[in-house]
Amino acid sequence: MSAEPWAALARALALVPYVPIAQYEFGASFREMKRALGAPAHPPAHYEHWLHGTRGSGEIIVFTHQVDEGVWTYVAARIDPPLFLGLGIRPQGSLFGSPGIVVGDRAADNALHVEGFDGRVATLLSPQDPDGRDLLARTTAAVTSGLGVRVTDSVVLFSREGLIANPSTIGPIATAAATLASAFAARRLALPATPVEVAIQNEWTRFADGERFSFDAARMKIRGSAAGSMMEVGLETDGRLLRTSVSFHFPRNVGVAFSLARANASEFLPGRFDRDIRIGDARFLVSGRPEAIVNELLARPAIVLLLRELGDKCKTVRMNHAQLSFRVEGAVTSAAQLFSLAQVGKLATESLFREAEAIGPYR
Length: 363
Hints:
about 375 residues, nine-stranded antiparallel sheet, eight-stranded antiparallel sheet, 17 strands, globular
């Protein structure tokens, strides 16, 4: 099958194709999806490439995904800032899972299965409030439109069965998804913070001020320079699970071309990695050239120690010649914990560059 229609879709919607390093997992945050984009693909685009860009004022990712029923085409629109409510909205009809939250509108309750770990979900979608009623009506209309629809804290996901690459079809779907995502973000900003949220924000502020980092309270995201790397720490949810993500963009590329990821059975795409190694109790999938140089780098004691520590503490670890990212289960709530995460990044930066320079540049 020719992939030219997919390439034409990318051009028509001004989207950039990327080679994903992980397959899509339902419930994944938009931040996690962006980390899975990998490197920009050489044109023309193919159906396996994810297409990233903007629609209106919001970010979107267009991609295809294989499920039991066949291939589907998805449009993911970013809810920014994210909701941090553990929100999950899908069509009614599943025989499994929790009974869901009743919002008090007959049409919506018949159409929507709503979940959340925060009681403010009911307020977000309250039919007693004009803005809540409007958002509820928009969401109900989307779910009953014939599209597949899922909404989480950070993603509005629309889907249609099959490989759909017609810009006149995907364009309006992308616009609708981005518009609904913007409505969720605006509605969330109207809800007051809880005492727990304020306490955590105060701790993150204390760390950021001490390190001279910037802190975006609405997005629960810290950015700043650590040992020359650009560090970013963010709170995110995957479904109803809270996680703290950490990434370090190195000051320059390490002089060894490699890609490494902690192996999770369902997360990574087959064929993306050349081999696997076990460090401590964690298995890492590795690719890179020349193989001998990559082997030498990853066998060095400082790198082994770093990967063992990350593998023991984190289920998601990714590293390559340009950056390191990992996720900690749960929400980091204290300045001391944030300081510890910063130290990991500093160690990673110093270790990688020191050990790579000891090996020498590859050719």
